[in-house]
Amino acid sequence: MAASAQATFPVFLLLLLSAAIAFVDGSSVDPSGEKFTHVHFYFHETRSGPNTTVANYKNLTSTPSFAYIGVFDNYLREGTDPSSTLLGRAQGVGVFAMPEGRSGLLTATEFVFTAGKYNGSTLTMMGMYAAAGEVDRSIIGGSGRFRMARGYSLSKVISIDDLRLVAKFDLYVKHY
């Protein structure tokens, strides 16, 4: 009997220690503390010229126009004007594939806020980009004011030419 008690004592101590750590840590999230935030900005991409913010790597395969990868570091601004207040950057990658006549651009984007009330925070967006109409993508994470973020993004191209692209973004985010 004494040997059995000695064998279970370390297990009991381990369970007790685990419970104490979980209690003291306090990192559990209170569901009642969840917030909802609407974030609005304009995405400015410079497509050519000396201050280009996007680079496309084409012809990754022997089949022309099958696939490419784009890397970007675009501006987030308060308005459509290129001189409007800078709110942050949109940094990420886009992967384009066109097998058998279907096309799609999968984007992974980190919105890095460097000014305003979200300064120092980030939101992460991922999803397929379609050039026409309104685009719906997922918000899959965040940091700073947007810890444990989840939600969706609606975007629409406002203007596009050979030099630049401007898109309107509305992010609808739940976070703690």
Task: Provide a brief overview of the structure.
With 176 residues, the protein is mainly beta.
CATH class: Mainly Beta
CATH superfamily grouping:
Allene oxide cyclase-like
CATH architecture: Beta Barrel
Main sheet properties: 8 strands, antiparallel, barrel
Mean pLDDT: 84
Q: How many discrete domains?
A: 1
- End-to-end CA span: 50 Å
Low-confidence region ranges: 21-26
N-to-C series of helices and strands: HEEEEEEEEE
Radius of gyration: 23 Å
Q: What spatial order of strands do you see in the largest sheet?
A: 1-3-4-5-6-7-8-9
Briefly note the structural class of the backbone: mainly beta
Global outline:
globular
Would you tell me which CATH topology applies?
AOC barrel-like
Count of alpha/pi helices: 1
Strand content: over 45%
- What percent of residues adopt helix (DSSP H or I)? 10-25%
Please tag this protein with its features.
mainly beta, globular, Dirigent, AOC barrel-like, 176 residues, apoplast, Dirigent protein, single chain, secreted, Allene_oxi_cyc_Dirigent
Give an overview in words.
- The protein is mostly beta strands and 176 residues long.
- The protein has a single domain (33-175), classed as AOC barrel-like, CATH 2.40.480.10.
- 14% of the residues lie in helices and 51% in strands.
- A hairpin with an 8-residue loop joins strand 5 (104-113) and strand 6 (122-129).
- It is globular, with a radius of gyration of 23 Å.
- The chain starts with a helix and ends with a strand.
- Residues 1-26 form the signal peptide.
- Its main location: secreted.
- This is Dirigent protein.
- Homodimer.
